[in-house]
């Protein structure tokens, strides 16, 4: 089951998602993590930390699980 990441903005970058999900500790680690680890965005490998992720995108990180982007509902 994919872990949901709620967006408060229009999009989140892949580097921000990795930090938000606890995969990396700092945003600066994203560049190196993505060079060494094949991360899938909607089933396609992507190593760009600035890749924009939108609601319903599915991100798979080996040994860390799967994440789905959700738009946070406004009350």
What is the strand and helix layout of this fold?
Layout lengths: L2 E5 L4 E2 H7 L9 H7 L3 E2 L2 E2 L6 E2 L4 E4 L3 E7 L4
Protein name: S4 domain protein YaaA
GO molecular function, one term: RNA binding
Keywords: RNA-binding
Description:
- Helix content is about 20%, strand content about 30%.
- The chain has a single domain, classed as Structural Genomics Hypothetical 15.5 Kd Protein In mrcA-pckA Intergenic Region, Chain A (Roll), CATH 3.10.290.10.
- The protein is an alpha+beta fold and about 80 residues long.
- The chain has a five-stranded mixed β-sheet with strand order 1-7-6-3-4, with no helix packed on it.
- The model has no long low-confidence stretch (mean pLDDT about 95).
- The chain is globular and about 40 Å long.
Features:
75 residues, Structural Genomics Hypothetical 15.5 Kd Protein In mrcA-pckA Intergenic Region, Chain A, two-stranded antiparallel sheet, 2 helices, 19% helix, globular, RNA-bd_S4-rel_YaaA, RNA binding, S4_RNA-bd_sf, RNA-binding
């Amino acid at each position: 089951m994919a872990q949901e990441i709620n967006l408060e903005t229009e999009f989140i970058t892949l580097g921000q998602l990795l930090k938000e999900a606890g995969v990396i500790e700092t945003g600066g680690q994203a560049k190196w993590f993505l060079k060494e680890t094949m991360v899938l965005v909607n089933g396609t490998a992507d190593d760009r930390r600035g890749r924009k992720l939108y609601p319903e995108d599915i991100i798979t990180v080996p040994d860390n699980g799967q994440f789905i982007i959700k738009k946070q509902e406004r009350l």
